[in-house]
Design brief:
Mean pLDDT: 94
CATH architecture of the largest domain: 2-Layer Sandwich
Number of strands: 10
Structural class: alpha/beta
Largest sheet: 5 strands, mixed
Radius of gyration: 18 Å
Helix content: 25-40%
Distance between the termini: 57 Å
CATH topology of the largest domain: Nucleotidyltransferase, domain 5
CATH class of the largest domain: Alpha Beta
Number of helices: 7
Shape: globular
């Protein structure tokens, strides 16, 4: 089985090709350019370096949300385009699940923390039995205080990762009552290889969709939608 995976849900853009139990190639960049500038050239470079015939792919995996609204749209549009052009199915991987799988095999709980702005985070809580991931708290958009409180109630040591760690490190350090660590640099942001490996299991379980069916999962309203609803409430008031 061969899968092309795409993750542009956060500040990092990442592309990977995994075949069975081998990572054939991965290209991840965390820089100032937008995903619309980087994602397609990254895919093109990986395909060129691997001398990959895209028609040999079994599926396209994509980090399907939550995350940056713009990033998710770019990733989804790219995955849909490849799916339609190649007539391949898409595999939708929850963004927070994919991020958590960076720490597959961890002996402590894993808590991804993505900065969702407005003092909120996209987060969840996971544990591993070997490399089998179990969801303790499903991905959600909550205040940093809420997830830290739940971790304290859970009572197990935890490892944090994600772009929200830098933003909320001081809060975590002050309020987290269990033993905790922050994941190292090579594991603390989105990696398409983790998305691809999770996608293997999804594919075997038949958890696929067509390119036409795919929609990002934003988990919450965009800023424009929130402002529109607020304006409507004021107008009605």
């Amino acid at each position: 089985m061969k899968i092309l995976a795409i993750d542009s849900s956060g500040i990092v853009a990442s592309v990977a090709v995994v075949e069975d139990d081998s990572l054939l190639g991965e290209y991840t960049i965390n820089h100032k350019k937008t995903h619309s500038q980087t994602l397609l050239p990254m895919i093109d470079e990986v395909v060129r370096m691997l001398e990959l015939d895209l028609h040999t792919l079994d599926a396209i995996a994509v980090a399907a949300g939550p995350g940056s609204f713009t990033g998710l749209r770019i990733g989804s549009a790219t995955a849909k385009g490849f799916g339609l052009a190649l007539d391949k199915p898409l595999i939708e991987i929850p963004t927070v699940d994919g991020l958590a799988y960076n720490l597959a095999g961890s002996s402590v709980a894993v808590c991804p923390v993505m900065d969702a702005r407005r003092n909120q985070v996209y987060t969840g809580l996971y544990r591993f039995e070997g490399y089998q991931m179990h969801t303790v708290i499903e991905q959600c958009a909550v205040g940093i205080d809420e997830i830290v409180e739940k971790i304290n109630m859970h009572g197990q040591a935890v490892s944090f990762l994600g772009d929200g760690v830098h933003v909320f490190a001081s809060y975590i350090e002050e309020h987290c009552k269990v033993n905790y660590t922050f994941a190292p640099a090579h594991l603390n942001k989105q990696r398409a290889s983790a998305v691809a490996v999770l996608a293997m299991g999804y594919y075997r379980a038949g958890r696929i969709c067509t390119a036409a069916e795919h929609r990002p999962d934003y988990l919450r309203l965009s800023q424009a939608e929130r402002e529109r609803m607020e304006a409507q409430r004021h107008a009605q008031g």
